[in-house]
Amino acid sequence: MQETNEPGDEDPLLAWAAQGQSQAYSHGDALAVASPSLYQRDRLVVTGSADDLAILVPKVLAEVGPSYRTIGDADLIRDLAKRIPGVTLVDTFGWMETSRRPAVTPSSAGWLTTDDDRDIGKLLDAAWPSAKARPRVAGVRRWAGLRDCGGRLAAVAADAWSAPTVGFLSGAATHPQTRGRGHSVATCGFLLDQMLSEYGRVGLLVDGWNCGAIRLFRRLGLSYRPLASLRTR
27, 39, 177, 202: which sits with the fewest CB atoms below 10 Å from its CB? Predict the structure, then answer.
C-alpha cells in the first residue's frame, strides 16, 4: 500500500471525496480516498480492480478505522462484499454529475442570506427532516431558494461540501404545499448554473429509490452513476 497526496481528478467522485486535501492510498491500479466527516460521514471512496481493492481496502480501514463507509461503483462494491472479510453491503444509491450548464429559464430563484435561515429550517422540517444540509452546519457554504407569490419560501438547495474542482449540491427540497409547480427545477437550475461557473463540475448523491429527484436532475442534464457502500461489521 502506498500513500499519495495526488489522487487525481479524472474521476469526479474521487475528486469530490479528496476535497483538495484528503489522503489517498494506492495498490496496483486501485485507488482509495479517505475523507473524514464528508457529507456528515467518514467515507472511503474507491476505484480500480476488485483484485487490487480486495488487498488495499482492508489495509486502509485498519489505518483509518471502522467508522469509514467504503463507497464505489455498485457492481464493484458488491464484488468486494464477497471478497473482504468483516464487511457487509449496507446501501445502494447514485452519484449524479454534470459539467454542462443547464438551460435555465429566468425565474425568481436566487441567493438566500442568513436572514432566511429560519425559513430554510422550517421548509426542511416539513419537506425533508433528515436532510444533512442545514443552515450553519459545517461544510454548508450557501443556499439558493425561491419564494412564491405570497412570500413563502417554496424551494431551497445548497452548495455544500464542495471540492475545489467539483461542486456538491445538497439539501434540495420543495415545500409540500408548493410541489408540482417547477419551483425545485428553477432553484436547482439557478444553483447549478452558478456552481458550474465556479467549479466546472457539479455532483450530488441521491437515493436509488428517489425516482422524482433522479428525474428532476436528469432534466437538468445530470447523468446517473449507480453506487453502493460497505460498512465494517
Answer: 177
